[in-house]
Amino acid sequence: MRLFPGLRSLILTFLRKMLFLWVRTDVSGNSREALGLDPQKPVCYVLQYSSLSSRLVLEQEVRRAGLPGAEAALPITSAPPHSFFFLYRRTGGMFRRRQTPVLTQQFRDLVSDGVSHPELDVQLVPVSLFWGRSPDKEKSLFKLLLSDTWSVAGRLQKLLIILVHGRNTYVQFNRPLSLHQVVEEYRDNEARANRKLARVLRTHFRRVRQAVLGPDLSHRRTLVEGLVRTQAVKDAIRETARRDDIPPEKVRAKARKYADEIAASMSIVTIRFLEVVLSWLWNRIYNGIAVNNITVAKEVAQDNAVVYVPCHRSHIDYLLLSYVLYRNGLMPPHIAAGINLNMPIVGPILRRGGAFFMRRSFRDNPLYATVFNEYMHVMFSRGYSVEYFVEGGRSRTGRMLQPRPGMLSMTVRSFLRDHRKPIVFVPVYIGYEKVMEGRSYLGELRGKKKQKESIFALAKTLRKLTNSFGRVAVNFGDAIHLAEVLDQAHPSWRQEAYDSEYRPDWLPVAVDDLANRVATGINASVAVNPIGITATVLLSTERLAMDESQLARLMDQFADLLRRFPYATTTTLPEGNGKDWIAYCENMGLVTRQAQKLGDIIGLEGSNAILMTYYRNNIQHLFALPSLIACLFENNRSLRREKVRSLSGVVYPFLRSELFLHHPVADAEAVIDQWIDVLIEQGLLSVDGDRICRPEEGTDAMLRLRTLSRFIIQTLERYHLAIAVLRKYGPGKISASELEEQSTLMAERMSILFGLNAPEFFDKTLFRNFIAKLQENGVITTDDHGLLSYTEGLDEVAEDADLVLSVEKRQAIQQVTMLGA
Q1: Reported pTM
Q2: Which positions make up the signal peptide (predicted)?
Q3: Kindly report the CA angle at 516 between 306 and 421, in degrees rounded to 5?
């Protein structure tokens, strides 16, 4: 017999208030905007398993969020008397064995109405609820009993779970399904419509559960022992014992030690502890954390093994990314960490937070390499999410470093061995307004020895916690499906057999392509902040100073350029205007103000002038093409559009390789054309017949164009310097390594003589990349003795540089190369 509705409502309200005296929730997706609800259609919430506690939590959260109530009746004849239903009901009594859950009658009634009334549509909002978010630990009765896992909890177990984990409850609302769309094709067969909707909802709940809880974890000791027993490690043990004449038992013990050194020991207790500590830390040192496009990660995490590949600017990176993922309902990844971080106290905490440790190099240790490869294979084949940095180390200049192929190659080879679980890469850009290690980076760029990680160094870092480091942005890029990359590299890869040691001939090309896509995806997700755009404009001035109103106006205009022709859909721009950004930078202590009656002067002084190059380099790639076009008008009043396209097109492949620009070389001319049109629209260029013209000298437009040209000019000077050094020696006189060394020395000398505040100007790796690109494009070749030769094409490139570089810069480069002779 049903209770009187008013009395029933009163009892439920009382129970809900009692429950929330204890329960605390973290909720995701609970807004009309996030759900995309249609106000003209009724809403019905769907919970997976019948549970009074879940019903009470649902009602509480929809009330808090101002969503359509869950207790209100749906305007449907035979549907539930309220706006929610459970997908499954339990069978079996309190103490009897539970059977497989069966579909509820409310579910069947709703489908029946949907089938009978074609005009009816209901928005079905799936709601997933987790009492604690602990991965399952095999052989751990405590975790099995008191953690919300893949198993369905009984009533007594649920009561204990609420008591233990009720203050760490996670609720996720998901975008609605249309009842009309799901049952439309089965209006003549209600049974099939039931099965269709149940399957869609069941799949949805399973995918969300996997994304939130992660796959089931094996006990760490079992995992370590399992690694030693794999065929690949057995073969490596046997080979090592034979080669080094060591008893197999000793080699096996060494392999076990390696596995124990590597393997993570993820603990939900540690993760929750770190969440509390990091929440306090971020609130203390940052003004906020902006998270953008995280729906990409949420979607791919449901059916794939995810590899998060962030840029590496700070030790904070991996802590911040794990924190953001956990706070947004995703299981933190297993993180590849350098063995140097396996310090006392810190190492065990990181290991329990998901870190697995790797040595910097293990090329000469095949046994260690095999154990590490097998560990990675276990991670991927079981569907764990993983995080590693493709750059290898932290960027000291603020630029994206050239990717290192090691971890990517391991990932691809693991997938070739077993591709039942798809692997998806998610590029992540982490942007700091003030990087914590900024000052130490300046010292290292000046030649100071890199400080080793230690407890004492950590203690010194803790003293910085009284400082403010501005805001942080965590931007997720577009997903990269590994199978699609392999399809393009080698379409028949699925038909071939691979073992742990096999490296097909086409693998390096596929890995290089993947590395470029990852780096390009990271740069495409850049977060432009006030520090970066202020640094970009101020560093383009000769004296590193500018009138405040003029600086604010230029920043507004250059930010508008990025809005007129967005670099990528995943790029984000700052709020506010130039005046706000100047005040913000001043408050952060990065710029100085000199009061003056005609208008205050904003400038850069001392070490800040060099430090700000770091933040400029974060966003330099966004302005690379318009700045390159602007450079062409440094020495030319006008050029034919075709000439602008061709000259820019010659340089573009080198800029793309260095800055990881996301437009393919094949699309370069079309993109250049679009930028020309935008610059004309903004008044920086004009059209006279078939020629593109620069503004008149002394005008505001010419000031903007000249400022824009300086955003990339030092990169072009570096290219010209390397070519000048090569031409000075002549063909067949110098090797690639010698050219790299000589170019670096010349650039460093030029930096000192002409006061260039840009440490990357004499970065040896950038010269190495440029020389390699010249070889790849056939501009220079290597003879049998390893010496470089070139054709007249190089002379043409040098002549084209005369159209780009000013007379002063060409003379400066010539002077430096002559002095270095």
Answers
A1: 0.79
A2: none
A3: 25
pLDDT band at 470 (very low <50, low <70, confident <90, very high): very high
Beta bridge partners of 46: 85, 126
- The closest of 43, 187, 176 to 111, measured between CA atoms, is 187
User: 537 and 677 in one domain?
Assistant: yes
* Burial group, residue 805, by CB count within 10 angstroms (0-12, 13-18, 19+): buried
Residue 802: the pLDDT is 67
% of the chain surpassing 90 pLDDT: 51
Same domain? 380 vs 477: yes
CA angle 552, 553, 555 (to 5 degrees): 65
- What's the pLDDT band for 8 if we cut at 50, 70, 90? confident
Number of compact structural domains in the chain = 4
In this structure, is residue 5 part of a structural domain? no
Cα–Cα distance measured from residue 268 to residue 334, given in angstroms and rounded to the nearest whole number: 13
Pairwise CA distance, residues 365 & 358, whole Å = 13
Its domain, for residue 806, covers 713-819
Averaged pLDDT for residues 706-715: 92
- DSSP 3-state assignment of 231? helix
Answer whether residue 3 is part of any domain. no
3-state SS string over 117-139?
CCCCCCEEEEEEEEECCCCCECC
Buried b (16+ CB within 10 A) or exposed e, 554-591: bbebbbebbeebebbebbbbbeeebeebbbbbeebebb
Hunting for tokens 């008893």 — which residue is that?
Answer: 247
Can you tell me the distance from the alpha carbon of 49 to that of 102, in angstroms, rounded to the nearest whole number?
A: 10
DSSP one-letter code for 523 = H
Q: Give the 3-state secondary structure of residue 430.
A: strand
Tell whether 430 is covered by a domain: yes
Confidence of residue 449 (pLDDT cuts 50, 70, 90): low
**Separation CA 47–CA 151 (nearest Å):** 16
Separation between Cα atoms, residue 181 and residue 176, nearest integer Å: 11
SS3 letters across 456-468? HHHHHHHHHHHCC
Q: How confident is the model at residue 77 (pLDDT cuts 50, 70, 90)?
A: low
My answer on whether 170 and 290 are in the same domain is no
Separation CA 3–CA 15 (nearest Å): 15
